[in-house]
Structures are given as structure tokens and as C-alpha cells.
Specification:
The complex is a heterodimer.
Chain A lengths: L1 H58 L2 H12 L19 E6 L9 H16 L5 H4 E6 L1 H9 L3 E6 L8 H16 L5 E9 L5 E9 L3 H17 L7 E3 L2 H76 L1
Helix pairs in contact in A: 1-7, 1-8, 6-8
Chain B lengths: L6 E7 L2 E8 L2 E5 L3 E4 L6 E15 L2 E15 L2 E6 L2 E3 L5 H21 L2 H21 L2
Parallel strand pairs in B: 1-7
Antiparallel strand pairs in B: 1-2, 3-4, 3-5, 5-6, 6-7, 6-8
Helix pairs in contact in B: 1-2
The chains are: A alpha/beta, B alpha+beta.
Chain lengths: 318, 139
Amino acid sequence: MAGSLQSVKRRINSTKKTQQITNAMQMVSTVKLNQIQRHTASYQVYAAKIRSVITHLAKSHLLDSISVSSSSKKSDDPMSSLGMLQQRPVKKVGIVVITSDRGLVGSYNSTVLKQTMTLIDNVSKADNKKDDIVILAIGSTGADFFKQRGFNIGYEYQGVNDVPKFKEVRPIVQAIVTMFTSGAFDKLYVCYNHFVNTLTSEFRAEQMLPITAENVGDLENDGLEEAKEGQIAPAYDAEPSQNAILEVVLPQYAESLVYGAILDAKTSEHASSSTAMKSASDNADDIISTLQLQYNRARQSAITTEITEITGAQAALE
Amino acid sequence: MSDKPELTVSVVTPDGEVYENKTTLAICKTAEGELGIMPNHTPVLASLAIDEVRVKTGEDQYDEIAIGGGFLEFSNNVLSIVASAAERKENIDTSRAERARDRAKERIEKAQNEHDVKELKRAEISLKRALNRIKISGH
């Protein structure tokens, strides 16, 4: 009996230690979650500004006229932001998959990967779909997953900070946009987990490039609602010209979209990591209480046996 | 100062608001030249050059902010400067800016050797940003 007593005790101790670790990890995730949420709040101000300007430009139907003219003349300058408006026949589809670099984040990665596979099935019906898809992986889990399945990895980035700064993300965005303008793919989706609240996150796949009148049109509706709440959108003077402003605003818009997606994904990563660690700690609690019961029983039975032995011995002496 | 009309300047970047103040005059460099904005200016949109924005804080006193490209939007006496990067003069880390300048120069050289037009353009923009920061911090 003593042996089992010892082993139960040992298991309790080790579970307790694991629980300490998961507790600590949960706290770290929660802190990071708070940090990134604060950061996201300040980013939202910036995003809202860009959105309102884009909405304004979209309202003046500038986007439509430009997308028509640029697709007809096939702008040769790849750095020109107007390339982002270019709609080409879709031969290849780029998919940015944002996953985490490390594990212990619950179902975070598997959700993204599973849903992305569904998206790939929908996007390309052809048998050789692997040729039509270019995967741009942010985060090692996604990169490994798609590499193993023999997909074409066009871009890979690992080690995004826990609270990514814009400066860090910028090269990623630029690389992606350059790939689009140079024709590595004709349509770009960004797949990530959108943070709803600490307990839930929801998969999102957004088409980000080319920037079309339709996907700005969605914004327009949002913008209109905002405008109703606030003042009527003023008629702006444009300096030097609306086209020139578009040249500046569009790349910033695209950058802010991708940055927003990465921030959102990271937020949800921290949230699910925090939730996963919380449930791990709770499970550890359950295990400990079961083991404690087992331990107490074992100890009690040991005591009982001892007493029986003593009384038995005494009875034999008398 | 208090009874004069004022406008609010706010400089926002993806990493948050860098600067916010009330002023009677803000001078921005646009791609076409300088643009001074005073209260009750008509609503305007303008693209900004990689340069500085000066915000008047008193007689001959200006707050200077280095802008790494972006645009401005002015309406209802609120001037929003939406930049991908911005730093106040006091916060500029000169040694970091100098390192960035050297890096950009190396990249330009490399791009020229390899005839990489895109990379060259990008490196030139980085160099401009770095030089702009150095210039403003040296005022």
C-alpha cells in the first residue's frame, strides 16, 4: 500500500507543478491580450481615418473610373499604387494564412487551417488546384502545414512579435503587394481568426486585392452610417489632385488592412492561448482533487490495516 | 489666444496617436509645396511629402513633427494627419536615424548593381525618411 501512497503523492505534486506553469502562461497571455487590445484601440483611430477618406473617394466614383482606365492601359510601373486596383482574369489565387508560431493555443491553428482548406476547395474547382494557389504563410504552423501537403509557398514569415508594431509588419505587406502587382497571383485572400471576445473567435477570409469598387462599397455603407451619426461628410478640396491623393491613400489603405488582420489574428491568438491555459489549469484542478481523494483513501486504508495489525498482535499477546 | 479661433491638430499613425494639440496655424509640406492651414480653412485633402509638419504653439514657436509620408484631411477645424510613420522632433533618435540612413545607402548601392528598380525605389524612400529625421532633429 505504501508504494501506491508514494506514487499518488508524486502524481499530485507533478500535476500541481504543471498547474503552476499553465497558470503562469495564462497570466502572461492575459497581459499580452490587454496590451494588444490597447494597441489595437489606437490603431483603430488610424484605420477609421483612412476608411473615411477612401469612402469619400469612393463616393466621388473615382475608383471606378481608375480601375477601368488602368486595366485598359495595363500600367507598367509596378510601384504605382493604381496597380492595386487592377482586375485581371483570375488564374492564380494568393492566400495569406495567419497562424501562430507556437502551440498551446487551443484550437486556434486548427480552425484557421481547416477553414482555409475549405476556402481553397471553393476557390479552385480544378483537379490541379495546388498549381492555382499560392500560399503566403505568416506563422510557422501554417507554413509547415501547407508545405507538408505540397502547396506552393510563395512567402513565409515567422516570428511576428506578440504585440506587432506597424514597422515590423510593413515589409510583409510590401512583399505581398509587390507579388500581386508583378502578377504572382491575381486575387488575394487573407485568412485569419477574428477576435470576438476572450472566449470566442471566428474565422474570416477577406478578399483584399485587387481593391475593387465592391469591397470599398462595403466600407461605403459603414461610412455612410458613421456619417449619419456625425456630421455630413464635407466636400473636400483635393491638393494637388484626387488621383495624386489616391496614389498615397491606396497603399496606406492596403497596408492598414493587412496590418489590421495581423493585429486581429494576434489578439485572437492571445485570447485562445489564455483560454486554453485556463482550461488546462481547471483540468489540473480536477485531476488533483481526484488524486487527493485517492491519496486520502489509500492513506486511510493503510492506517486501518496498521490498526488491525496492532490490535491483532495485541490480541495474540493476551 | 483664447478668443481666437483654433484648430485641433492630430497626427495618427498605425501605432497610435503621436501628437495632438490646439493651434492657430499648422504648416505642412505637400507634394506640391507648403500648405498653411488656419482655422476655418475649407475642407481639404492633400498628400504629404516626406518632410515635417510645423504646428504653431506661440510667437515664433513651433512644434515640429517628422512625417514619413501620408496624407492630411482637414474638416470642421480638425486637421488629421494620417501618416505611416511620424515622430516628434524631441523623440527622434538621431543615432538610429543615422543607422537607417547608412542601411538605406547600402541598399541603394546593391539595388543599382543588381538593376532592381523596385528595390531601388523603396531604398530611396527609406533614405529620404532617414535624412528627413536627421534634418529635423538637427534644427
